[in-house]
Design brief:
Strand content: under 5%
Distance between the termini: 32 Å
Number of strands: 0
Order of helices and strands: HHHHHHHHHHHHH
Structural class: mainly alpha
Helix content: over 70%
């Protein structure tokens, strides 16, 4: 996306490379499923085997969706996202209703991925006429390596708080934290992430005018702070009544964690504008080290918060939420 002017030269090799990485990832997931089968866990093995094609299917949509973003075809991007999400929801209900259970949820995820990838190829079909060019791959590899590392760190950070809290506070506290995080952040996260998808190609087109790039970042931060601040304040104020009215009394302790996370989310919102700016200016090494610092802080603060909260009246879930916020 950041090199959209060279899209025609880079796209074909990128499609082949994405497919190869997706195929290798699918084989890795499949091998884990087979290993679980030999370890005497057939139910889990079936789930893993069922979802194993997902990395390959997802990888095939990367270049077409990047092409749509680079060409600022946001309407088509929205069509793909809506079709993917709607098909997943409808099929999940249908498959579970048909008696497939958890396997139905995974099957719905798989079919919706196929639908999304198919639509992406219909709307922005990449050319596969030419073979992959090693020179193009070697040209892209340095940037992709830093992005891959940043992605690994981001994924680790997204799961670290759950793992730490589960180890320190136990399953009950982990459940409360999961409910608080899911109810308190999902709507705002969807909005902020979609803003990031729009900002990256828009800022990339301004690469030759860095002053306008910087002004775009300031304007995006201001708009997101205004809207996000209002939503976060409402979520923090209504967390208690919302959980009391929606869930059983056993889940009421999640209200404090939800309130704290809503407050912390206001500051996290800025990353959804800063990260696209860093990518648009092609400072991928900076992005990697930024993620490294953020994940290190998250690990330390989540662990300290969970440990202190486990021995305090607020509980480990709220303690972890304070650390994360």
């Amino acid at each position: 996306i950041t090199r959209s002017k060279e899209l025609g030269r880079l796209a074909t090799t990128s499609v082949w490379f994405a497919g190869a990485v997706g195929l290798a990832s699918s084989f890795l997931v499949l091998s884990i499923g087979i290993a679980l089968l030999y370890l005497g866990k057939p139910a889990t093995a079936m789930m893993v085997v069922l979802i194993s094609p997902s990395p390959l299917i997802t990888s095939m949509a990367i270049v077409p969706e990047a092409t749509l973003a680079a060409q600022l075809r946001f309407k088509h991007m929205a069509v793909i996202q809506i079709a993917r999400g709607l098909s997943r929801a409808v099929l999940a209900v249908a498959f579970v209703w048909a008696g497939m259970g958890t396997a139905g949820l995974l099957a719905a995820l798989l079919v919706s991925a196929v639908i999304g990838a198919g639509l992406a190829w219909m709307l922005a079909p990449p050319s596969l006429a030419a073979p992959p060019r090693p020179s193009v791959l070697s040209e892209l590899m340095p940037s992709m390596s830093w992005l891959f590392g940043a992605g690994l760190l981001s994924t680790a950070g997204a799961q670290a708080d759950y793992l730490i809290l589960g180890a320190i506070g136990g399953e009950a506290q982990l459940g409360l934290y999961f409910i608080a995080f899911s109810l308190g952040n999902q709507i705002l996260m969807i909005f902020a992430m979609n803003m990031g998808r729009v900002l990256l190609p828009a800022m990339s087109l301004l690469a030759e005018v860095p002053e306008r790039q910087a002004q775009g970042l300031i304007d995006a931060c201001s708009a997101l702070a205004l809207l996000g601040g209002l939503v976060c304040a409402l979520q923090a104020a209504l967390a208690g009544p919302f959980i009391q009215g929606l869930l059983r009394p056993i889940y009421e302790p999640a209200a404090l964690a939800m309130t704290v996370l809503a407050c912390g989310m206001f500051f996290r919102l800025m990353s959804f504008t800063v990260v696209p700016y860093i990518k648009a200016t092609q400072r991928f090494k900076t992005l990697f080290w930024l993620q490294a610092v953020l994940v290190t802080n998250l690990l330390a603060l989540a662990a300290v918060g969970s440990w202190l909260g486990s021995s305090a009246p607020i509980g480990a879930a709220s303690g972890c939420a304070i650390g994360v916020a």
